[in-house]
Amino acid sequence: MSPRVPLLSLLALVVGTGALSGAVRWGRVLEQPPEWYAGAEARAVAASVLLYQRPEGGWPKNVDMTVPPSAAFLADAGAHAPTIDNKATTTQLTLLAEVITAAGASAAPEWRTAFERGFDYLLAAQYENGGWPQFFPLRKGYYTHITYNDNAMVNVLALLRDSAQGRAPFGFVDESRRTRAAAAVQKGIACILRSQVKQDGKLTAWCAQHDEHTLAPAPARKFEPASLSGGESLGLVKFLMTVPEPTPEIIAAVEGAVAWFEQVKLTGVREDHPPAPDLPHKHDRVLVPDPAAPPLWARFYELGTNRPIYTGRDAIVRYNLSEIEAERRGGYSWHSDDPQKLLERDYPRWRKKHHLP
Asked: Are residues 20 and 64 located together in one domain of the fold?
């Protein structure tokens, strides 16, 4: 909660903007038509968001903020640390920016204050080497690693980039913060380039998290070993491709990653999710031979060999999805076909745009 705005004042603001109808779910608050952000429901959600802001300026994750915090949440607010994981903080800042922009001169000053504190939180959380930890202030454990996982750092960089360039809905951001944001983005890009893994002298991909000191691939949870990531690497490549005038280093990074994606794609198999009422997630996840199936990419690839790997809560690396326990097999995203759009559409367009031979 913001130390600058009393709790009772914020509660009054929520009530004053109109009842929270709950018509829009928290996971969809950034997917609404422009007119929604000028309406009573959006203002009420924005007022509710202010109640969840931590003294450091960021927001916790995995919380429905379309409604004000419960008494239980407030009683244990210290357990809800600010983070960039699972789209936390970047979602709240973007929502506030949408509401501030839609309201114009009638925007509540509390929204702008909260936005600026959150924006400054992101800038303060950046390491000197350009990366971002999962939590700030820092928490012991893998949380201190530079976090590409689930596009956490990419989400931050995209917000700062759009703010630095004055893109909607961040046109109101002041010049000083735009300048600082632009510098942070350049440092972030440098970190991405420096942490790209080389194999036999060739640039490949990235791990879901990298050591904050050495930039080497680093493990996270027991089922998330140090490895090359088919998911997070896609987000990093797509972000690098948005740089208007890519440097030779950026071009080399994209080319290396695309070549790696081509090399490690899985063909002749598809992923099925057969019902399994007796299993923890009520379904299983299996790879089935299918010569006609489109390519798949694994979540994790072994460093050095590029073999797909699967790890359960025992932290033992295995090479077949069927060998890990049912709870992890069905409760985690192990494969994706998303890189196919990069190879077939985005990458060729990028090369054409920049007149690459």
From this structure: yes
Residue 12 pLDDT > 50: no
Q: Total structural domains in the chain?
A: 2
pTM of the model: 0.93
The HSE-up count of residue 109 (CA atoms within 13 Å, CB side) is 3
Cα–Cα distance for residue pair 75/258, rounded to 1 Å: 49
pLDDT above 60 (res 13): no
- pLDDT tens, position by position, 190-245: 999 999 999 999 999 999 999 999 999 999 999 999 999 999 999 999 999 999 99
- In the block, which residue shows the tokens 């202030």? 137
Peptide bond into 169 cis (omega under 30): yes
168 and 216 in one domain? no
Sign of the torsion angle spanned by Cα atoms 247, 248, 250, 251: positive
Is the N-terminal amide bond of 82 cis, ω within 30° of 0?
Answer: no
- Catalytic residue list: 86, 221
What mean pLDDT is reported for the chain? Answer: 94
SS3 category, 269? strand
CA distances from 82 to 3, 90, 191, 296 (A): 15, 11, 23, 34
Report how far apart, in Å, the C-alpha atoms of 78 and of each of 60, 237, 349 are: 10, 36, 47
Structural domain of 162? 1-195
